[in-house]
Structures are given as C-alpha cells and as structure tokens.
Design goal:
It contains 14 helices and 19 strands. The relative contact order is 0.09. With about 425 residues, the chain is of the alpha+beta class. Strand 4 and strand 5 (about 60-65) form a beta hairpin. InterPro entries: BTB/POZ_dom, MATH/TRAF_dom, SKP1/BTB/POZ_sf, TRAF-like.
C-alpha cells in the first residue's frame, strides 16, 4: 500500500476484527492483535492493541506495542500511524504520524482515536461492513528507510453462536390476551438451552391487541445478545412490524447528506461572503458556518466591528497551512496528516478563535504524542494558552522522565526563557 502522506517506504499491518459489535472489553482491557515481526527493524516483534471503550466508553483507543521478548536494541526509534480503512483500503479516519522510541514491553498510541458513536451507530455501514472493523498500522524507520513496502495481514474473530429458526404458533388467532407462548433457543454445539423467547398478546391503550416478545437468558456465560425478529406471512414473505418505532433511513442519512453539502460549499467556494487573509493568501468562507463553530467569529460578524463592514478578516499570525487545516475541520470535522508541529499551530489557532472541538482534538493528539524532545515545548504551549489539563499532563511526563529531560538542551533553554515555569514544574516533586 503506497504511502501518500510520507514518501518513505513503510511496513503496513492490516488487521480485520470480525463480529466487533460483540466485543465486551471494558476501558482498561484491549483486544490484542496477533504478533508480527518487522525484519527490517532489527527483527523486532510488535502487536497492535485496540481498546473498544476508552475515555469513559465514548472513544476507541488504538496503540502499537513492542513485545517484551522482542529482538533488537533496548530502544527502537520509529515513526508510525493508525487508520480505520474501508473495504477498498482507503482510509476513513486516521491519526497523524507519531515519532517515538519504543523500549521492550512499551507502547504508544491514541486514547481517543475515534468516537464509538460514529463507528458503531451513525457511520456503522461505512466502518463496519458485515460487522468487521479493519484497522491499519504503518511503520517507518526514523532514520534511514525500509528497502521496500511490505504488507502483513491478520484477523481476529470474536466467537458468536448464531441461530436461525422459524417458530410456528398453532391457533394464534384465538390466543387469549396475556396468554404466553414460549420457544427454547438451544446451542448448536451441545443442544443445551441458551435462552427462551416468550410471546404474548397484550391489550394496548386504545384496546388494540399488541404482540409482545420477551427474551430470557438461561446461560450465565452469555454477556450479549442480538435478536432480529420478523413475522412471516402465509407466502413466506417477511412482514416488517413497528416501522414507526425506528429511525427512518432518510433521517439516518440526513446528517451525512448535510455534511456532504457543507463540504461542497467549501470545495466550490459557493456563495462565500467573507475572506480570511494572510500576508500571502486569501481563503473564501461563509460567515454563518464560521460563526457556528467559533464564538470569536460570531462576535466579529454580529457586532459593529470592522470585519462586519469589510467582509474581510486579516490574520497575520497564522500560516496558510494552519488556516487551511482550520477551515477543513470547520467544514468537514476532519483533520488530516497531523504531525506534532502542525498540531501545535492548529491548537493555537483553535484557542485564538475559540473552536473548542478542534482545540480538544489537537490537545488529545499532543497528549498522545508527548516525547522527550517536545515536552518542554508542550509545557510552554499549555502555559501560554492557560490549558491546565494539558499542562498537568506534560508536567507529570517531565517528572516521570526526570534527568532525561532536565539534562537536555531543551530544558536548559526553558530555564533561560521561563525560569518561573521550570521552577513551578520541579516544585511538584515535593508535593
């Protein structure tokens, strides 16, 4: 698989997780991939770990771990990224490229790689065809280059016991109200009862008779059930009941259609009514869409300010690349090809214009990609923008790595430029 984001040749690990809806791991429990060895990286051994429920169950996390018994040097420096990919191999959601030194038994990745709601509900048909999630991890050498592109494939299948059956009810038309009929669902493997399905006719509020079902589990080992019920007419055709109790397909696709429409406005520069200007470029945009994401833009365009009259916002302190990335997020809620450097600039832009969701995204990326080389810069960034959460995390990281950071040139530079911040961080050792 060619690497468009990085011209270097890479090792690509593609991992299919079948029946992913049935994963029951809690927040600290991962699904671990089959191990794989990268010969071109000193024959080091690796696994990918997928955390189905991270950050109080709202996110999916993904990490790359070096195996404890791996060959190679004590620390191996690599670049890596993650993606969830479609059937055709195209990336649907992906991380930026991380650059870390992996010691044996250690791993790095993203706690908040993807939202569970998006993967399992709103975009389920895109991300989970046939209930299979496909994850991709790519690895590059930090120094030098892998001789050729290499692909490795693995599969993990969550075991599911499936049963299909037709339940014929004799004399159904004369069943009395509240009469219960039961059907035993048994295991294919050993014919033991797994659950019972009860049907009874109840009287509704308007005296209509309503068919109700109740499922009772008899095997305590079963943690999760999916049941699809339908009625079959005399000709064997399925009769869909209670359609009005479910979300209409048109409603499900509405949010996607709206996103596509907004993206087309961005791509085609259609009916733009404001321009964002740097010293070198001009970016057409829409006041309404900018205002929806940013309280700062909203104030500019709704109050008696110069931007309201000129339909132009002069931005001298942000690069063209940063503004382009900021607009891409506003119009598509996507961030592409993040690196530590452009993530820090994008974070600053999000803070300046109060684009809270983008700031949160960039902050998460920065936390996931803390390293010995950028910790001091992240400390300055968090302090300058008053981000107490990010600041606390980077301070803990600095204290955990002690002399590895405090003996570095970056720390010496920090001591000269912001001695108060350096002292504040070191004082935490005594609290």
């Amino acid at each position: 698989m060619a690497c468009k984001e990085n011209e270097q040749k890479c090792f690509t690990f593609i991992w299919k997780l079948e029946n992913i809806s049935y994963c029951l791991q809690q927040e600290s429990k991962p699904i671990v991939s089959p191990p794989f060895i990268v010969d071109e990286l000193e024959k080091t051994g690796w696994t990918v770990r997928l955390y189905p429920r991270k950050q109080t169950g709202k996110y999916i996390g993904i990490f790359l771990f070096r195996q404890l018994d791996s060959s190679g040097q004590a620390i191996v420096e690599i670049k890596y990224d993650f993606a969830f990919i479609a059937k055709d191999g195209s990336p649907l959601i992906f991380s930026g490229i991380g650059n870390k030194g992996f010691s044996k038994g250690k791993g790095f990745g993203c706690d908040r790689f993807a939202r569970r709601e998006e993967i399992f509900i709103s975009e389920r048909s895109t991300f989970l065809p046939e209930d299979t999630l496909t994850a991709r991890c790519r690895v590059w050498k930090s120094v030098g280059e892998i001789p050729q592109d290499i692909q490795c494939y693995a599969r993990t299948r969550i075991v599911v016991d499936k049963r299909s059956f037709i339940w014929k009810l004799e004399n159904f038309s004369i069943l009395e109200s509240e009469t219960k009929c039961s059907y035993q669902i048994k295991s294919i493997a050993n014919n033991t009862p797994l659950a019972s399905l009860d049907l009874f006719v109840a009287t509704g509020l308007s005296c209509d008779e309503i068919i109700r079902f109740k499922l009772t589990c008899h095997d305590q080992r079963i943690k999760f059930f999916t049941v699809i019920l339908c009625l079959i007419d005399a000709f064997g055709n399925k009769v869909h009941c209670n359609q009005d109790e479910f979300v209409n397909n048109d409603e499900i696709s509405l949010s996607n259609a709206l996103l596509d429409y907004v993206k087309s406005l961005y791509d085609e520069n259609f009916l733009c009514d404001v321009k964002l200007k740097t010293s070198t470029s001009t970016f057409p945009a829409h006041k309404l869409i900018l205002s929806a994401f940013s309280s700062v833009f909203k104030a500019m365009f709704s109050n008696d300010m110069i931007e309201q009259d000129t339909n132009c916002v002069n931005i001298e302190d942000l690069s063209d690349d940063t503004i382009s990335r900021m607009l891409l997020f506003i119009y598509t809620t996507r961030v592409e090809d993040l690196t530590w450097e452009n993530a820090s600039f994008l974070y600053a832009a999000a803070d300046k214009y109060a684009i809270l969701s983008l700031k949160d995204f960039c902050s998460s990326y920065i936390k996931d990609n803390l390293s010995l080389s950028n910790a001091c810069e992240v400390l300055l960034l968090s302090d300058f923008h008053g981000d107490s959460d990010l600041k606390s995390i980077v301070q803990k990281y600095i204290l955990q790595h002690g002399k590895q950071i405090t003996n570095s040139e970056e720390w010496k530079a920090l001591m000269q430029t912001n001695a108060k911040l350096a002292a504040e961080t070191l004082c935490l050792l005594f609290k």
